[in-house]
Design goal:
Length: 231
């Protein structure tokens, strides 16, 4: 495991040599995540306006300098800045769950084998990505006074959730192909928590319940989705 691990799915936290690093302020996590996922330098004025929109530019920049000073004590080796710009620069000592998740997603799309055929390499990517997604990006983090950041976070969460949904569809089929029906049920149910109106997933779950002898559960699932009054 890398020297540093940054976990952004679910409640964010940072670990260095198996020791938790105390980053408690929401705006610290907002700034780090915005820089990390943006993957390029940002003007200081842009970041100050993003996180302190109710303040004038001079005060917002002063707030940014203050918070950067605090962050430098914790993650200074990953922060690059000059008088006008700021960037997050990860290196080989840092592992990030979201970046690893997206690596698995990209690898699946770049794989040359037919996605409908059993493939051990694809299955490994799917299982690893699924294990990483323990909750939405920065789950529980709220910056009500920063509407532009909240909008950015919403779209980042939606993108990652859509990637998860796409992978869960394939993972459910992979488990069925391997006749691992308990795992197929778990994954398909998770799939339907993301989109309860996904009809193919509803039919698949009903089939799985029926195939594993859970006829009451199959009937309940059918009634809840395919009959207007649930009867």
């Amino acid at each position: 495991m890398a020297e540093w691990q940054m976990w952004l799915f679910g409640a964010p936290h940072l670990v260095h040599h198996d020791k938790d690093i105390p980053i408690q302020r929401h705006k610290h996590w907002a700034l780090l995540t915005y820089l990390l996922l943006g993957a390029h330098p940002y003007p200081r004025e842009t970041l100050a306006a993003l996180l302190w929109p109710a303040y004038g530019q001079a005060q917002a920049l002063a707030n940014l300098r203050r918070e950067l000073s605090r962050l430098h004590h914790l993650v200074g080796e990953f922060l690059w800045c000059d008088r006008s710009t700021l960037a997050f620069v990860p290196n080989e000592t840092l592992w990030v769950d979201v970046l690893t998740f997206e690596h698995h997603y990209t690898a699946l799309h770049q794989h040359l084998l037919c996605p409908h055929e059993p493939c051990t390499e694809c299955f490994d990517h799917l299982v690893a990505a699924h294990a990483l997604y323990v909750g939405d990006l920065l789950a529980g983090l709220s910056l009500a006074d920063c509407p532009e950041f909240e909008e950015w976070l919403f779209f980042q969460q939606e993108t990652l959730r859509n990637h998860l949904f796409e992978m869960l569809k394939r993972l459910s089929g992979e488990y069925i192909a391997r006749q691992d029906h308990p795992q197929a049920i778990t994954v398909t149910r998770e799939l339907l928590t993301i989109d309860p109106l996904y009809e193919e997933g509803q039919r698949r779950l009903i089939w799985l319940y029926t195939h594993t002898g859970q006829r009451t559960a199959a009937l309940r699932q059918y009634q809840s989705f395919f009959t207007p009054d649930g009867s």
